[in-house]
Amino acid sequence: MLKVLFVTHEMDPYTGLTELSHIARTLPQTLQEEGMEVRVFMPRYGKINERKHRLHEVIRLSGINITVADEDNPMIIKVASLPIAKIQIYFLDNEDLFHRKYFFYDENDEFYDDNAIRTLFFNKGVIEVATKLGWEPDIIHVHGWMGNLIPLLSKTLYRHEPVFKNSKLIYSTYGNEFDHPIGDNYLENAHLQLGDHELPSELNLDNPNCQDLYKIAVTYADAVVNSSNGSMESLKSYIDDLDKPVLTELFDKENEDHYIEANKNFYRELTS
Prior knowledge:
About 35% of the residues lie in helices and about 20% in strands.
């Protein structure tokens, strides 16, 4: 029985931002129903109603602080069970970073100035929770731009941790969510002690845009599901040049079963 950890910044019924919200619900649910063991990590946005979705704090995972941009940010972990599918959803929570009326844009449709900090907090938080949870998945499937540093961290600083040492990490790209840079000193603000590891020179780690974040992720992933649209040709070319398994699969609600089956077969190939 495969164990699969999903990491996403969107998921129905908690968000409905893009098609990723739907994929992050249907794919894990189908896997769980077919006998796989599935868990999901995502941010706990302020718009998620704790009472309605029955979130409760995981006390044994409390006390974690995430250092980003010279500040220690306390992280609270809350969990809920996805209705019908009975999948455990772990919510990474920080009041200052996520308790807002909106997700990534304010009431004037302006990109939040601290979205880079929020993203770094989420990436480092996922790694910390995964190492402390004591659950070792066969597959870690990261979806979307917000989880961009998880492959890098799992293959460098945390490569000897049991949760990452024996798992295959898949990264799924999607459409171009924003064209502008996310914020200055992106990697510097992450406070990563990479030692002698040299990052590829072609990666933009100072002030990356969405496509740059995707490139960071696919560089370190074991395999890639390229669901990005045709507007990101440079990303496609970059992925094509990587020496790793790539599944090119665009999501279509009318052919949802095909999309799910393609991902399942990809899992089997990587773990066989």
